[in-house]
Structure formats: C-alpha cells, structure tokens
C-alpha cells in the first residue's frame, strides 16, 4: 500500500469561506464616528486586524482602515493601548 503525502491525501472537510460582514442588505455602514464598530477590528495592541482574519473584503478593508485612521486623528480612538 502506498503512503499518501499531505498534498495527495484528501481533506476530511472543506472549510467554508466567511462572508464579508459589511456586504449585504442589513450590513452596518463604516463610519469613523462609530467607535464601537471600529474597535472590533483593532487588536489589543492597537493594530488594525488584517482582512484574512476578519474576513472583510479588500474594498471594505480599505474603507475600514481609513475610518480607523480618521478616528485616531480626530481623537476618538487611541493610537496605542497603554
């Protein structure tokens, strides 16, 4: 019997792709004044979480990053956590 390498072995299940939380009818709008929404996409260290982790689409990730940076500049969000 042949030994199957990891590339040849079948995976037990297919991982489902997450959908973007900002696309769809009832999706929240990205606004720099909505600090509660924006803080969900910032790590404990104050860094913007990448889209591969949050499953946000590329276009919405750019909007999200722009809104977070705008909120930081105005003073609604901190740049770094102390």
UniProtKB/TrEMBL annotation:
GO process terms (BP): translation
GO molecular function, one term: structural constituent of ribosome
Ribosomal protein as UniProt keyword: yes
InterPro entries in alphabetical order: Ribosomal_bS18 (IPR001648), Ribosomal_bS18_CS (IPR018275), Ribosomal_bS18_sf (IPR036870)
Alphabetized UniProt keyword annotations: Ribonucleoprotein, Ribosomal protein, RNA-binding, rRNA-binding
A Pfam short name: Ribosomal_S18
Transmembrane portions of the chain: none
Taxonomy, superkingdom: Bacteria
A Gene Ontology term for the protein's cellular component: cytosolic small ribosomal subunit
Annotated segments matching region Disordered: 1-25
HAMAP family, alphabetized: Ribosomal_bS18 (MF_00270)
Record text on subunit structure and interactions: Part of the 30S ribosomal subunit. Forms a tight heterodimer with protein bS6.
Similarity field: Belongs to the bacterial ribosomal protein bS18 family.
Function: Binds as a heterodimer with protein bS6 to the central domain of the 16S rRNA, where it helps stabilize the platform of the 30S subunit.
Annotated PANTHER family: 30S RIBOSOMAL PROTEIN S18, SMALL RIBOSOMAL SUBUNIT PROTEIN BS18M
Name of the protein described by the UniProt record: Small ribosomal subunit protein bS18
Gene that this polypeptide is encoded by: rpsR
